[in-house]
Design a protein that fits this description.
By secondary structure, this protein is of the alpha+beta class. The protein has 14 helices and 19 strands. Residues 7, 9, 156, 178, 180, 375, 405 line the site of magnesium ion.
């Protein structure tokens, strides 16, 4: 029986073998080892697209249902299922489509789809124990639907720690921090050559914690502070029947614009009428036109791709321009890194407090030898700086930000799955 490690991420999914090899499960793409965790159901076709082809197909013609960040909904009791072109899809079924595609792509590399899997899960899906258990239960069900028959879970930062440990030649107490798209996970763990490969590593984990802050929230802050006024924040419109009464654009509409997948929910009829009213009576008509087109022409995903690209550029450069021209939306916004960091200050403070809390709880563990940063959002300079300021540059380490978790999950197959399950 074949086994693999599988890191089902909010934005990227990766799979690895027990020897740590991260598999090229997205062949013919710029990043073959990263399978984008997205689905697209076109209106005029029965095919379900997953991964990079879903993005390509959606950008060709966005008539249809595009689903992203589905992992972020796993803990939510209120999100049980969704209607897609008249069929009900449970959240488990949606996740299963992604996991099945990844399993098949892994099988194409190794000869047969793996049946045993060690699946990553955040340290904390939700601070509420019932919601956390629900998320894991749904992920397990999705893995079963995808064809896996032996399923075990491992906390993502522990998996990243195992990847880091593979190249260690001495014992270290390591703080591992994984900054993804949906969550940040932290683990303090004892690592080293003598511990490597032990069947049970629970005793080596000094402490773990997590918080629902990831790249998606950083994108939302850019939207909130830089772009919302261009879509009507702070403007007013006239209420029908009360000719001189003007009201501010409702907060709940603006709040939905902070993440593009929420945006589709404001296309319902009552809000459509509101958008129409704003179009007729806004004190800043160009913002009402931009808002109308953003929502009604389903441009949210495109806009958030641009926001994300600007954020990524600000990790490399001190300044960037966000350019977006679609329908009646015309954005050309200069933004500096310092400005972006000021927008994100509340998130950075929360990350710092979360780290501080873990360190206080683990105070007796001794001196931390190294801090291993991973996950795409660890590339935000202000995030890295939190750790460099606290621990010094020399103790802060990084490797491949996007594949460490998968590599560690793969390596964990050796110690966690009983040997007869592994194809050696
Ligand atoms: N250079 C960069 N600078 C800042 N952010 C980046 C950079 N590159 C990628 N990101 C962000 O990293 C995130 C994706 O990282 P990653 O693949 O580690 O997340 P994930 O594993 O899918 O999410 P999670 O672990 O939370 O489920 C996205 O939010 C993306 O915008
Ligand atoms: Mg991740």
């Amino acid at each position: 029986m074949q086994a693999c490690g599988l890191d089902f991420g909010t934005s990227n999914t990766a799979a690895a073998l027990p020897d740590g090899t991260v598999l090229p499960i997205a062949p013919d793409t710029a990043e073959p080892r990263l399978f984008r965790s997205v689905l697209f159901f076109p209106e005029d076709e029965r095919t379900t697209y997953a991964g990079a082809p879903a993005i390509t197909r959606y950008l060709e013609d966005n008539a249809g249902r595009f689903i992203q960040s589905v992992k972020s909904f796993l803990h939510s009791r209120s999100f049980r299922a969704t209607q897609v072109h008249g069929r009900t899809w449970t959240i488990e079924e949606l996740v299963a489509v992604l996991l099945r595609r990844v399993r098949e792509a892994a099988g194409a590399q190794t000869g047969a789809p793996p049946e045993a899997v060690i699946l990553g899960r955040p340290a904390v899906f939700s601070p509420e124990p019932e919601a956390d258990a629900l998320a894991e239960q749904r992920l397990r069900k999705a893995a079963e639907l995808a064809g896996f028959t032996h399923i075990q879970f491992l906390i993502e930062p522990i998996a990243a720690a195992l990847a880091y440990e593979a190249q260690l030649s001495r014992e270290e107490l390591v703080l591992v921090a994984d900054f993804g798209a949906g969550t940040t996970d932290l683990t303090l763990m004892r690592l080293g050559p003598s511990r490597r490969g032990r069947p049970d590593r629970k005793a080596d984990v000094v402490g773990s914690t997590g918080v629902r802050i990831g790249g998606d929230r950083f994108d939302a802050e850019l939207m909130r502070h830089k772009l919302l006024p261009r879509f009507g924040a702070g403007t007013t419109y006239r209420v029908r029947g009360l000719s001189d009464k003007r009201l501010p654009v409702p907060q709940h509409v603006m709040a939905k614009l902070l993440s593009w997948h929420e945006m589709s929910f404001i296309r319902e009829k009552s809000t459509q009428e509101l958008l129409q009213l704003m179009l007729e009576s806004s004190d800043k008509p160009e913002t009402a036109e931009a808002l109308y087109d953003l929502v009604m022409e389903n441009l949210g995903y495109r806009l958030f791709r641009t926001i994300e690209a600007t954020k990524v550029q600000l990790s490399r450069e001190e300044e960037a321009t966000l350019d977006f021209e679609e329908a009646r939306i015309s954005l050309h916004e200069r933004i500096t890194r310092a400005e972006f960091e000021s927008f994100c200050q509340p998130l950075l403070t929360e990350l710092e407090q979360c780290t501080q809390g873990l360190l206080e709880r683990c105070a007796g563990a001794g001196e931390i030898d190294a801090v291993f940063l991973t996950g795409g959002s660890s590339q935000i300079p202000a995030v890295r700086k939190l750790y460099v300021d606290r621990f010094g540059e020399a103790r802060v380490r990084t490797a491949d930000a996007f594949t460490s978790v998968a590599e560690g999950l793969g390596r964990a197959c050796v110690s966690l799955v009983s040997p007869d399950l592994i194809n050696s």
